[in-house]
Amino acid sequence: MSDNIVVVGGGHNGLVAAAYLAQAGKNVTVLERLDHLGGAAVSSYTFEGVDARLSRYSYLVSLLPERIIRELGLRLRLKRRRYSSYTPEPGTDRGLLVDNQDARSTAASFASIGAAGDAAAWHSFYAATARMARALFPTVCDPLLTRSEARGALGDDKLWSAIVEQPIGEAIESAFTSDVVRGVAMTDGLIGTFARARDASLAANRCFLYHVIGGETGDWDLPVGGMGAVTDELAKAAKNAGATILTGAEVTSITPDGEVRYRRRNSERELRGETVLANVAPYVLEQLVQAGLRRGGPAGPPHPEPPRPEGAQVKVNLMLSRLPRLRDRSVDPAAAFGGTFHINECYSQLDAAYDAASSGSIPEPLPCEIYCHTLADPSILSDELAASGAHTLTVFALHTPDRLLAGEGQKPDQDRTEDHDAMRQRLQAAVLDSLDSVLAEPIADVLLPDAQGRPCIETKTTLDIEEALRMPGGNIFHGPLSWPFVEDDADLSTPAQRWGVDSGYDRILLCGSGARRGGAVSGIGGHNAAMAVLER
Questions:
Q1: Res. 305 pLDDT band, cuts 50 70 90
Q2: Over 50: is that where the pLDDT of 1 sits?
Q3: What is the β-pairing status of strands 508-510 and 502-505?
Q4: Looking at residue 409, what is its pLDDT?
Q5: pLDDT reading at 417 higher than 70
Q6: How far is 237 from 10, CA to CA, in rounded Å?
Q7: Which DSSP helix (H) or strand (E) runs through 97?
Q8: Distances in whole angstroms, Cα of residue 141 to Cα of each of 116, 131, 136, 300, 516
Q9: 123-127: long-range contacts (C-beta < 8 A, 24 or more apart)?
Q10: What span, in angstroms and rounded, lies between the C-alpha atoms of 207 and 183?
């Protein structure tokens, strides 16, 4: 048993951990509840009769370190997008287009929306975040720095204070004057995070930091072949290294001494491991451990149950017969959709949307951001579909917290399902209305029909994500994000603590997005859990 490692969950982090540990000679078994691997990092043929393999949940990559790609031998292509973003100015036929390859046209675009003075500030602001990226991102696959060490590595106390110690809204308001420009910057602090710009808890700051440090540049790249290509390579690396991977294996309990019970093919089975790596949310892990203790596992000191997480986004996948025309005729739709297309995400609109959602209402207009995979990588389409001019569109709506779907009190399952179906339709309509507000034609007019003649549109709420992926509350980060460092007085006496994967149980390590420095498609949680095992 001394070399046995059980990995609970075959998402991308679990596969990273399995590959590293199997390469090191450990006997590794991965248990995945679904009939396929990858968790949220998957591609699928979403629409009947439409030969397009969409990234169904997660869709871009920034935080996956080159080190992991190199050490696991992943044959993975990440493509950089030319355009950073396009943001229509509400109520006008103008918009801000940030072109990474043309500084002059970008400056002219700032001027076109009355924000000429913000153009230089934009470059200065993101030059500063790039310095932070170069200082901090190289440390995410190493033992944790303390706060003082991280601050010293940056060597810029003013920047540290702006990003780490004061609400991120203060830094954005200080840097920019335009409502549009402020909003574009603020969105990096709100993906999957329900918070105000001046959020005193600094939740938006932590989200912002992870969005601007990836790859030491902050760029968000497109995986050629779709997100499933990432999972395919990781699964290959784990299998080639000798890991055993079981799909359709639902873990029902874990005990603190390493007993893992699971159900597969209608039978109950058991594995014991020296170490269990939990590629599930900490909230879910605690439920599994409590189930193990109820089955007669060894008692231990009381372990506080983590608070139930809450997600705050709606994901909509669409297939278009062609790109829609814009109200802003000065911008080519291929350029507007070629980066991140921000809709109704001005700074003031984001705060108004937060207020509306906090009071239990769907924000109107709904802040959304869009990206088009097929403009940079048509390989996910059949040749015929690509030649027809068809495109995929992914919409990510902000400030739609899970509480909007939960309702008040407990309801019967059937009523909850009926309520959810109605709310999903309302959220989908709000997304389409938001898109239509900046288009010269209704988005419905360019939706491709599936084999049954139905429009190709798929909407995933936080409840859908929880039911499909067991992410409680639909939280895509498995819980609140943490800083990529610890406080100066933190206990770092064990490998699990030093690598940020401590679960509170000696034989169980976190290896997913809920680990410190976890979140997004990064593999960092899996890498660091594997390093903690090897250090022990």
A1: confident
A2: no
A3: antiparallel
A4: 41
A5: no
A6: 13
A7: strand 95-99
A8: 40, 18, 10, 31, 11
A9: 124/175, 125/175, 125/176, 125/185, 126/212, 126/218
A10: 15
